[in-house]
Each structure stands twice: as structure tokens, then as C-alpha cells.
Design a protein that fits this description.
single chain; 351 residues; Rossmann fold; 2 domains; binds ligand F0G
Length: 351
Amino acid sequence: MAKGVLAKYKDYLPLTDDTPIFSLGEGDTPLVKSRHIVDLVGCEELYFKLEGCNPTGSFKDRGMVVAVAKALEAGGNSLACASTGNTSASAAAYGAYCGIPTTVIVPKGNVARGKLAQAVAYGARIMLIQGSFDHAMQLVRDLTERHPIVLVNSINPHRLQGQKTAAFEVVEELGAAPDYVFIPVGNAGNITAYWMGFQEAYHNEWTSIRPRMMGFQAAGAAPIVRGDVVTEPATIATAIRVGNPASWDKALTARDESGGTIDMVTDDNIMDAYKMLASKEGVFCEPASAASLAGLIKHAKAGLNLEGQKVVCIITGHGLKDPDLANEIEPVWMEEYPPDLDAVEQALGLG
Ligand code: F0G
């Protein structure tokens, strides 16, 4: 039976004897060692934390299981979230598992097809808003303030508690924290959660290292970098198409306390990293997730000396989430043949 985040980390989460313990198999995701890109960026060791291997295909499940367990403990019987897609897929899945209705409020036309398909399949109430994620976020805040519906966005503190367990896993697997963590930034909950997790690991004396947190927004949706709300955020990486992040201040704290940075990468940088991860390392992620590697490449090219350093890139969501973008990749070789061995051999130069 899947152990999951609640059972495995119960001593480090805000659980009580009354908190229900359940799991869809979240957490315990692979840390894959780079074989090729490591040489390009010049660090000692480079790893990819594959959060797309969670049950709904993104890191959101780690926090969602805690948020939903705490909601049930408090007698909640209805969930709601705003989302660029992954939070809604995750909330809908845990809502279905626990038998409670989930309302997801998403920006119409800006949710990747795989994510919307998940919310449909899990049976959520899907509200397509004629506006941005930031409008959806404001709506869900107002809605849950007025009605007894549990808000499961990352401003729900239980979400960040669950998400911090990814940092624990990295420390456990490497035997210490890495020197650098590169991570995409959207609503800024995840960078906050990782920093919490690494701080806790340090205070528990599991590691004497505190990594520099290197967060990356998309250039067309980079309010933290620009220091101002972006009213019309635009990027191919729809997951991080956020103009007014809810955890803005906490992300700045993570940056400053860790001696890291929050910077931006262009959509071209993101697409290059997205294709490179798949074709050079066998890691197929969604575009937003590739912002971490795009950021690493940008800083390595700009002269960041990573000699002797251990680096982890957080790969936040699975490539199958966004099949439309994946289909834009030019195939190395895709031709049509008759069902005939001679034709196949000839094409392969074996005839
Ligand atoms: N990567 C992916 C795949 C995401 O879905 C998100 C956020 C992020 C990175 C950024 O994480 O928001 O904690 O800074 N997706 C949210 C959603 C906004 O609604 O699914 P963050």
C-alpha cells in the first residue's frame, strides 16, 4: 500500500490524532542524476527532482494531501481553488478520493489540455473565468471567505507544509542539502515551501548546508523580478502565468535568507531547456518546469562558477500535461511506411 506524505512525515507535519491518514501515492519521487547537461553547466553533480511522478503529475499532490486531510479533520465538506491547471487537477483528485465536491476556478483558454482533462475526469465543478489566474485567485478568496468552503490554494498553510517534504527527500537522498536549488516560480508557494523544508532539515541537523534558492519566473510574467504587479501576464509556460503571486513576500524572504536570486527566463530559453531535458536526459516535463533548467543555463552562461557544486533542478510537472506544446517539437525522424520488413530495413539503411 502507498505510504504517502502523511504517514511518512507525520512527525514533521501539523497532524493530530484526529487527522485522517490516506494517500494516493504522493511523494517519494525520483532524483535523477544528469549525464549530459551537467557538463554544459560545469557543476560537480546535477540532479533533477521529478515531481511529475506524483499521482496527478505535479508537486501539488504533496501539499494537497495535507490540506485535504486537515479540511476533513475540521469537518470541511467542500473544496475550492483557483488554478493555472495543476492545483485544480490535484484538488479534484483528492476531493474525489475523499468523496467531497471540488470547485476549480481557472482562466479560460490558458490551462494546458491534459490538466483540464484531469479535472473533468475526476469530476470537479469547473468554472472557466473570462480573466487571468489572478482574477480567479481573488474570486476564490472572496468565495471561501463568505461560504463554508475550504480554500486549498497554497495560501492555505497546510499546502506549504506538505510541499516542504520534497526538500526532506532531497536531503535524505543526497545525504545533505545541495549547494543550489533551481526552481520555477509562479504563485511563489513552492520556493517558499522548499526553503521551509531546507531550514527545518538544517535545524534538525540532517544537513549542515543551506542551499541558495534560485527561483525563475517567465519574462512575460515576472512581477517579483520587475517589482510590480503584471496585469496581463503572458508566457507559453501557462502553469506560471501569474501576475500577482500570493506568496510574493515569502519568496523574497527565501531568496534573501538563502543568498539566492529570483530572476526571469524568456519563453525561448524555456522551450530550449524543455527540449534539451527530454532529448538529452530522458526527462519529459511541462514547459513551466523547464524554467528551472533554463535559469541554471542562463546563470552558468553569465559566469556563475559552479565548480565543485551540487545542484538540484526541481522538475515540477509532467510533460504529458501539455500535449499541444509537445506536439510542436520537430520529430528527429517520423515517416510513414507500409507494413513491410523490406521497406523498414531499407529506410534504416539495413536493406
Ligand atoms: N511548475 C508547475 C508545473 C506549476 O503548476 C506551478 C504552479 C509552478 C511550477 C509554480 O509553483 O505557484 O508554487 O510558485 N501552478 C499553480 C497552479 C499556480 O494553479 O497549478 P508556485
